[in-house]
Design a protein that fits this description.
The complex is a heterodimer of chains A (about 450) and B (about 325). With about 450 residues, chain A is α+β, with helices and mostly antiparallel strands. Chain A is built from 13 helices and 20 strands. The chains are: A alpha+beta (about 450), B alpha/beta (about 325).
Chain lengths: ~450, ~325
């Protein structure tokens, strides 16, 4: 008799799992209790164990793919047994109505798979959670079911996105829906479909338009072609990253922000600036120009900070487009210095002052203030020692620069007067962890304290 | 405006055109003394005499061929087939002579003639006498094909067919002859090749023709009660077909059901769907569905015949499906 391999609840809070690696090939003889695959849960990578014996006939879930608990992952059966009905019933990722089924249905599935093999009487210690007796597991699934109500409502876009991706990962949408999405600047990949098989149809587009721009913003318009390679790389969310994102967002507003502050010795920068000034007015640059150059160069080394949070994935940019917060009478605007890491100080300086002037006269075009990958805000000229800036989403970090100040500090056991500046980085914890931000700031400090690093 | 039957509307057209042009004559089985198997030619013999109202033997191939010859020498024959089921025998004259003569004579002989008669199933006439031939006839370059579903359209299209200088097929319906509708007293014709929007709507288009127009109208009425707005496009002419009217409607509604009396395989609906996918691809919100006769010889048994025929419930189900209403 055939045994369904299903996605088991391998952690108490697991609702879906990602198949990291198959350890058996189709056609392999499988003994009961053998490890079939590695599954990444919301907590760790666990082993999925065979509940029956026979031949691994079909690997339904591919490596890297995710399935909800209870879904078919594969089939173990006799070599000549007809498994087409089992496999056909599997389909792709679950549909909405399937997810909404009462927990008993999920339990039944698990019991079915358990029934095919005799229940292990003694839990095998080495198999850990993966080999927990089925009774216990079904209980867990039953317990887990009410948790579906927990995630707050505003999540559906990313949660349901896979519905429209049918067999083979192809997006299902009517021609009309595709056209309307493109005409309305919607990213159809991020919508969910209400038609058969999750097909996105006209009414889904209309609903997305009615839901407003936050529902499915189009990707930021791509700038002119980069000199090298792709402009960015999309990184699939790992289960742990998903859990961090969800939990922290629940804890603090939509962007779980934390702050890292350093005090940087700007004496070397001041000397550099003076030396340049002496070369003539062409070489005159501001502290902010040098800060921008340093941030851009540091970002190049830390792409994990030079990123956007897109809800269902993180977009790491291979180019650095630096937003520069400029105070204007009406409020604040953030023009962008594109490819700031590839520009010289004089270029950055010229562009920054031109953009600032345009901003104040309100002549910026939308292309000039959209598309930034990271931002800098500077209130030093107002005498602010230190402050925290608000992240400009979907960016994941911003540097807030305070005033340059002469301070007594201890250098080599002696109290000396140095020029110091405080930098505070606001970090989106869904993407940037404390250590990640700290490493970036360490590089930034190194560059500002040794500004020759900026000219290599 | 007078309300008359489809039968009388055709009869009026014949009288008017035979009075208008003495080259027009009618020929077929029982058209004269018996006044027509379905009384469409009633009274013609009395007014126009035996030279212009000709009773023939039961020889479809023969009298169709006589008609083609008459057309070649300047007359304008109307060939009545008692039903299109019997016209199968005459298809060689229709397809190989009438349709191709202008082309194969290098433009020397045009064939200004009409082949007309009831098409499709009536009630319990069984497999050999319950067939819809429109896709066979529309397949042939050189023929024009019209399929009126109302008395008004029947009169206007038959008059245009008689005046046309090419062979025109007029597909009528035994079940239509007794249906009634408004027909004006003043003279009018309906151009061949133009569709008619029988009902305006904006959520789904039903493309249909002939007898099925009546089914489509029922469907539209019923769905309107459920708040679903259906547009009915009556093609009237199958060849040439008013593809722009089809496309214009579907660009508005984004969904379509094609309703026809005949069989599915290579049926008219297949041609119509082809037009839709080409002209309206970016406007479609759902695959186009077809409603048609079951893919079997028409059963004689009443219940099976009903099950095999396209009808309002099947059409309603198709409309709801393309609208994603479960």
């Amino acid at each position: 008799m055939a045994t369904k391999i299903v996605m088991e609840a391998l952690s108490p809070t697991m609702e879906e799992g990602r198949l990291v690696k198959w350890l058996k090939n189709e056609g392999d003889q499988i003994a009961k209790g053998e490890v079939l695959a590695e599954i990444e849960t919301d907590k760790a990578v666990m082993e999925l164990v065979a509940r029956g014996e026979g031949v691994l006939r079909k690997r339904v879930l591919g490596e890297g793919e995710t399935a909800p608990v209870g879904n078919l992952v594969g089939v173990i059966a006799a070599p000549d047994e007809d498994i087409s009905a089992l496999v056909a019933g599997a389909g792709g990722p679950v549909k909405a109505d399937e997810q909404a089924k009462p927990p008993t249905e999920v339990v039944a599935k698990t019991q079915e798979s358990a029934g095919a093999s005799s229940v292990p009487t003694t839990p095998n210690a080495s198999q850990g959670e993966a080999s927990a007796p089925p009774q216990q597991k079904t209980q867990r699934i039953g317990n887990a079911a009410p948790r579906r109500e927990q995630p707050p409502v505003p999540e559906p876009i990313t949660e349901q996105a896979p519905h429209a991706i049918g067999n083979g990962g192809r997006l299902r949408a009517s021609p009309l829906a595709r056209r309307l999405a493109s005409e309305n600047g919607l990213d159809i990949q991020r919508l969910s479909g209400s038609g058969p098989g999750g097909r996105i149809v006209k009414r889904d587009i209309e609903a997305a338009i009615a839901a407003g721009p936050q529902a499915a913003p189009a990707a930021a318009p791509a700038r002119a072609a980069a000199v090298t390679g792709a402009d960015y790389e999309d990184i699939a969310l790992t289960q742990i990253r998903k859990t961090i994102a969800r939990r922290l967002a629940e804890s603090i507003g939509p962007i779980p922000t934390f702050y890292l502050t350093i005090e940087v010795d700007m004496t070397a920068v001041a000397e550099l600036r003076e030396a340049m000034k002496e070369l003539g007015s062409d070489f005159k640059v501001s502290y902010n120009d040098i800060l921008m150059k340093a941030v851009a160069t540091a970002l190049e080394k830390h792409p994990e900070v030079n990123a956007h949070w897109l809800g269902d994935r993180i977009r790491q940019f291979n180019r650095v487009h630096l937003g520069m917060a400029v105070a204007i009478d009406e409020g604040l605007i953030t023009p962008v210095i594109f490819d700031a890491n590839r520009k010289g100080l004089s270029e950055i300086s010229a562009e920054a002052s031109a953009l600032a002037a345009k901003a104040r006269s309100r002549k910026l075009t939308p292309e000039e203030y959209t598309g930034s990958t990271f931002s800098v805000s500077n209130l030093g000229m107002f005498g602010i020692d230190q402050f925290t800036a608000i992240i400009n989403p979907p960016e994941v970090g911003i540097i807030a620069a305070g005033a340059l100040e002469e301070k007594p500090v201890v250098v080599g056991g002696e109290v000396v007067v140095r020029k110091r500046m405080r930098l505070t980085m606001s970090c989106d914890h869904r993407v940037v962890d404390g250590a990640t931000g700290a490493k970036f700031l360490r590089t930034l400090r190194q560059m500002l304290e040794n500004p020759l690093m900026l000219v290599y | 405006m007078p309300v008359i039957t489809y039968r009388d509307a055709l009869n009026q057209a014949l009288f008017e055109e035979m009075r208008r042009d003495d080259r027009v004559f009618i020929m077929g089985e029982e058209v004269g003394v018996y006044q027509g198997a379905y009384k469409v030619s009633k009274g013609l013999l009395q007014e126009f005499g035996e030279m212009r109202v000709v009773d023939t033997p039961i020889t479809e191939l023969g009298f169709a061929g006589v008609g083609v010859g008459a057309a070649m020498v300047g007359l304008r024959p109307i060939i009545e087939f008692m039903t299109w089921n019997f016209a199968l025998l005459a298809l060689d004259q229709v397809v190989n002579s009438a349709a191709k003569m202008l082309y194969m004579s290098g433009g020397q002989y045009n064939i200004p003639m009409v082949f007309r008669g009831p098409n499709g199933a009536a009630l319990q006439l069984s497999a050999q006498h319950s067939q819809a031939w429109e896709s066979w006839l529309s397949h042939i370059p050189g023929l024009k094909v019209v399929a009126p579903g109302t008395p008004y359209d029947a009169k206007g299209l038959l008059k245009s067919a008689i005046r046309d200088d090419n062979p025109v097929i007029v597909l009528e319906g035994e079940m239509l002859y007794n249906t009634k509708g408004e027909v004006p007293e003043e003279e009018y014709t309906i151009p061949i090749g133009k569709a008619d929007i029988k009902r305006e709507g904006d959520q789904c288009t039903i493309v249909t023709f002939g007898k099925m127009v009546l089914v489509a109208m029922q469907v539209a009425d019923q769905l309107a009660k459920e708040g679903i707005s259906v547009e009915v496009v009556d093609l009237l002419s199958l060849r040439p077909m008013d593809t722009e009217a089809i496309a214009e409607s579907i660009r508005k509604t984004n969904r379509a059901v094609v309703l026809e009396e005949g069989w599915e395989v290579a049926g008219m609906g297949a041609q119509i769907v082809d037009v839709i996918q080409r002209e309206c691809f970016d406007f479609l919100d759902a695959p186009v569905l077809r409603v048609h006769q079951a893919d079997v010889p028409m059963p004689y048994a009443k219940n099976l015949e009903k099950a095999a025929k396209p009808d309002a419930p099947k059409t309603i189900a198709a409309v709801k499906k393309v609208m994603y209403i479960d």
